[in-house]
Amino acid sequence: MDHIHHDRTYKKSRFQQELEQSVSRKLISSLLLGCLLFCIAIAVVNALNQNARREDHLESVASTFHEVYNNTSAFLLDAGHTELFLSELRKDQDNLRYLISQYNVSALVEIQLILTDSKGNVRFTTFSEGEMNLHRQEFNCIAVDNACHLMRTVYTTVYHFRANSSEYVMIHPLYRDGEYQGAAAVYLNENDWTKLFSQYQYDAILTKPNGDVIACSNSSFLSQKNANKYLPADAAQYVRVNGNRYLRSSRSLENGTVLAYSFIYSPTNYSYLFVGLLLIVLLGLSWAAMFARIMHAMTEQMVKSVDTLVREIRIIRKEDPDHIIEIDTGDEIEEIARQVNKMVRTIQVQLNRISRNYPAIPKIGEAAGDFDYITQDAVIAFQEIFGLPATGIVNEATWYQISYIFTSVKNLAELNSEGLTQQDIEHTHTEDLHFGMQGKNIRALQYHLAVVGAYYAAIQPVEITGYFGEQTETSVKSLQQAFGLPVTGVVDFSTWNALYDAYTGIVESIPLDTSVNDVVLYPGVVLREGTTSEYVRLMQQYLTYIHGTYPEIPTVNATGYFGPMTKASVMAFQELFGYPKTGVVGTAVWNAITSLYSDLKYGYDKQPYQAPGYTIT
Question: Exposure of 125 by Cβ count < 10 A (0-12 exposed, 13-18 middle, 19+ buried)?
Fold first, then answer.
C-alpha cells in the first residue's frame, strides 16, 4: 500500500512530461550537434595542420634546391673561374683541382668537374679513372652538344649510370671572343642530396619534367622496373607505398625545369578515430546524464511554480474574486504573478478614466489589482458599448480596445486643455484659410485638425497656435490627401466640410471631456536627492496619491525636500513601470508620475447617474 501511495504522490503531470520531453529533445539535439561540430573541428584542424606541414616541407625542399642550384651556377659563371677553365684547357691543372677542392669544403652538395674542348675531347676531370668510364664520356659529349645547340648559359640534365644512381649535371659552354672553346660540366654528388633530405622529417623527390630522378630520399617510392624515373600515375593527393599512406604534393622549380615532390606520412588512424569518437560519445552521454538530472530538478521546480500560480487563479475564479495573487517562488512565475496583478490594475485605471466620457461604465472604486465583480461589470459595460461580446473577460480584442479608447480620450482631454471653449470654435466655413493667416478661425481649424489627427494616423498632428504656418499647411495637405481632395494646402469649402464631418463623427462616438486636469508640467530641472523646491513637494503629493492604488510605491511626506525616503519612493515607481532605477526624476519620469496621478485622480470622478463602484447600504 505504501508503494502504491508513493507512485500516486510522485506521478508526473502531463505538463511536466511534455516539458521534460521538449527539453530532452533540445538537449539531445544540442549534444549531437556539439559532437558533430567537435568532429568537424578536429577534421578541419587536422586538414589545416597537414596543409601547413606540406607547405613547410615543400618550402624547405625548394629552398635547399635553390641554394644548391644558385651556388653551383655562380661557381660556373664566375668570370675568374671561366678564365681559369679556358686556361686550364692548355696549361697545368693543379690550380683547377685546388679550386674544386676549396669549393667542396663549404658546398651543400659536392661537385665533380669535366672540361672538354671545342671538339669534345676531355681536357680535365676530377673523376677517377674508373669513374670516368666510356659511358660517362659518351653521355657528357651528348649533353655538351645539347647545351651548345640550345644556346643556354647553364644547361641541366641528369646522368644515370645504374639503378638508384642519379647525378644532377650542370653545363656551361665556354666562349672567347664569340668563338666556342669548350664546356665546363659539373656533376652533383647524389649522396650529398640524400644527406640534405635526411634533415627533414618527411620524404622528397626531385625530378626533371620528363620524370628523370635528380634525387630521392626514399627509394621505395620508385618503381623497381625503372628506379631512375618517377612519373605519378594520377593526381591523387594520397598515395600508398608499401602499405603506408602518404599525402603527396608537388611544386615547380626553376621555371618548370625541376619538379619537387613532398611525401608526408599520413596514416588513416581508424583505430584512433574510433577511440576518439567513442570518448566523445561517452563524454556526451555523461553530459546528458548530468543535464538530465539538472533538467529534472528545473522542470520539477517549474511545475511547482506553475501549479502554485494555477491554484491562485482558481481561488480568484471559484472562491474569492477579491483575492490578490501572491507567489514567493523566486523565479519567472513570481514575476508573471506580479505582472498579472499589474495588468488588472492597469485595466481598472483605464476603465475608470474612460468612464468619465462614458458614464454607462460603472466606477470600479480603488484599483487594487483584484478582478472582482465590480471590475467584471465595468468590463461588460465597456464591451456592450463598443460592440464586443459581453463576457466580462478581458481577451485580446477587449484589451486592445480598452487601450485604444483610453489613449483617445486622453488625447482629446489634452486638446481641450489648450484654452479653447466650444463657444470659441467656429464650425462653419466663412472664408478660405491659407498660409500666413492668423486669429480665431485659425485656432478653430487647428483644433479640428488636432481632434481628427488623434484618430487618423495619415493626418499630421498640429499645435494650436492661431497662426497658419508650415506645420498647419502640412496637416491640411495630409487631410486633403487622406480624403481624396486636391492637395493645395488651402482650406476651401470642400476641405472644411470633410474636416468637420470627420470631427463630428469622432465627437458623436466619444463624448468630449472639457474638464482640465490640475497637474503641473515638467519644471525643466532634474530633481534628485538633496533638492529642495515646490516641485519636489508636488511630486511627493503625486507619489503618495499613487500609493493608494500601487502599494509597492511607499508614501512620502510632502516636505519639499528630496531625501532618502523620496528617493526610495521614486526608485520603486521606476522599477514598477520599467524605468532605470536611478532615483532621479527627469522629463520622462516626471511625465509618467503626473500622467498616472491624473488617470487615478480624475478616473475616480463620478458623473451624474453613474454607478459609484461600491455597495450603497
Answer: buried
CB 439, CB 410: distance < 8 Å: no
Q: Locate 160 and state its grid cell.
A: 644515370
Listed residue (530, 523, 503, 495) closest to 594, CA to CA: 523
* Adjacency order of strands within the sheet including 258-265: 213-216, 203-207, 258-265, 244-253, 238-241
Give which of 372, 380, 373, 374 is closest to 324, Cα–Cα: 372
Determine whether 387 is exposed, middle or buried from the number of CB atoms within 10 Å of its CB (0-12, 13-18, 19+).
exposed
Classify strands 238-241 and 122-125 as parallel, antiparallel or unpaired: unpaired
What lies within 8 Å, CB to CB, of 350 at 6+ separation is: 402, 403, 406, 599, 603
The order of strands in the sheet holding 155-159 is 122-125, 111-117, 179-188, 167-176, 155-159
Of the candidates 206, 196, 158, the one whose C-alpha atom is nearest the C-alpha of residue 64 is 196
pLDDT in tens, 272-291: 667 777 777 787 777 777 77
| CB distance 89 to 117 below 8 Å | yes
What does the alpha-carbon distance between residue 115 and residue 95 come to, in Å, rounded to a whole number?
Answer: 14
Question: Is the four-CA dihedral 154, 157, 162, 166 of positive or negative sign?
Answer: positive
Cell of 299: 522542470
Contacts 24+ apart (CB under 8 A), 287-296: 287/31, 288/27, 288/28, 288/31, 291/27, 292/24, 292/27, 295/20, 295/23, 295/24, 295/27, 296/20
Amino acid identity of residue 213, one-letter, is: V
Q: How confident is the model at residue 539 (pLDDT cuts 50, 70, 90)?
A: very high
Q: How far apart are CA 145 and CA 600, in angstroms?
A: 113
pLDDT exceeds cutoff 60 at 192:
yes
Grid cell 458599448 in the structure block, residue:
385
Number of H-type helices and E-type strands within the chain: 16, 10
For 304-332, write each residue's pLDDT tens digit. 666 766 666 666 555 555 555 666 666 56
Residues contacting residue 523 through CB under 8 Å, at least 6 positions apart: 533, 535, 590
The helix (H) or strand (E) run that includes residue 184 is strand 179-188
Place of cell 492637395: 487
- Residue 189 CB coordination number (10 Å): 16
**Cell numbers linked to 485:** 481632395
pLDDT digits (tens, 9 = 90+) for 545-586: 988 888 889 999 999 999 999 999 999 999 988 899 999 998
Dump pLDDT digits (tens) for 173-191. 999 888 999 999 999 988 8
Question: How do strand 203-207 and strand 155-159 relate by DSSP bridges?
Answer: unpaired
229: DSSP letter: B
Amino acid 615: pLDDT: 47
